[in-house]
Give the backbone structure.
Amino acid sequence: MKNRRWPYVVATIALLLIEIYIGLFVRDRFVRPFLGDVLVTALLCCLWRAIKPTGVRLLPLYVMAFATVVEIAQYFDVVALVGLEHNAFISTIVGRSYSYKDLICYAVGCGLFWAIEWAVKRRFKEKKPLYLELQDTEWDFTYTDHDRHVARAIVVDADGFFYFNRLVRDDVFCRGTVVETAGGGVEAGEDFHAAIRRELKEELGAEVEILAEIGTVSDYYNLIHRHNINHFYLCRALSFGETAMTEAEVNAFHLSTLKLTYEEALAEYERCCDGPLGRLIAARERPILHRAKEMLT
């Protein structure tokens, strides 16, 4: 996700240079008093995103609130009230001239940033979600006695690393190690988003922002007569903490977290293809990982 930070860095530098130019060389009745105020709130939004590109979904609203507080301070001439009216630096930073037109300009700047960011984020939703139907080619089909809806996630952090589960199994499915996306069955009363957040908290200890739906994969585990409907989502990791894995995940599957680059993840899937379960998982998840990579870049 490093590439998500750089557009904000470039925008911050560009807006800062424009503001400096306006401050030093423009002396008109429109650009300096109005356009400069529009750009300053957009500059603050871009600066925050350049430092921390994830989280703070209502950033323009918070910047507008901050600008409003500053304008209220100007209305009451707080600088003079605290006896700093002779301090040129403080007077310049806080300001001593109130105008309701400034608030309108600040709102326009925040609205402009919000609209542009919304348009950029639409990229995640423009592609039609992937849909795959796969068969179990490892075990013979006899019958299916239940469907299981599963919520799964491709989790990526601000540095572009992906997070997966490593399972060490010794059962009829697998005797060895497999790599799989984090996720699990959707419980009664849950929607897919709630299930994703719960599963990622339990298995990875992760708090996430759900960016977009990647797609759905229908596949089968003939050995246990089950039809899986896997719902995949692209998620941005906001923070990591303690996991809350089940006893089976700890003792039976020896679940642990893998932090991998895209290329390393593909290599892990390939390495696990020496067993039937690993091949089924790879067939299901490699196309999803590839689509997620496309959505991110």
